[in-house]
Amino acid sequence: MLGFILGEIRAWEFGSAPCGWVYALSVEPEAREQGVGETLLAAVIGEFRKAGIDKMRTMVARDNLLTMSFFRGEGMMAGPYIELEKDLT
């Protein structure tokens, strides 16, 4: 296996319309820059489209430059929602 992608369709974040979410995408380091990630992403996008979904989202840490670069290169940009967080310790 050279990589994997996990996603789902959901619509429960404070009234947002149904959209596809990508939770995880990983490609073996020696297989990177060979189109594996793009192929996996295209496959999940195809499944989202078949289900009638026209938006896809993911969440990326600001300092994860590799993942941020990949998704930006695939045409993703900041969306209309802001992540909010609270330290519980």
Kindly describe this structure:
The protein is an alpha+beta fold. The chain has a single domain, classed as 3-Layer(aba) Sandwich (Aminopeptidase). It has helices at residues 36-50, 65-73, and strands at residues 3-10, 19-27, 56-58. The protein has a three-stranded mixed beta sheet, with helices on one face. α1 links the parallel β2 (19-27) and β3 (56-58). The longest helix is centred in the middle third of the chain and has 15 residues, at 36-50. The N and C termini lie far apart (39 Å).
Strand residue percentage: 15-25%
CATH topology: Aminopeptidase
Number of domains: 1
Weakly predicted, low-confidence segments = none
Q: Between the first and last Cα atoms, what is the distance in angstroms?
A: 39 Å
**CATH class type:** Alpha Beta
Determine Rg (CA atoms, Å).
14 Å
Question: What is the count of β-strands?
Answer: 3
> Helix count?
2
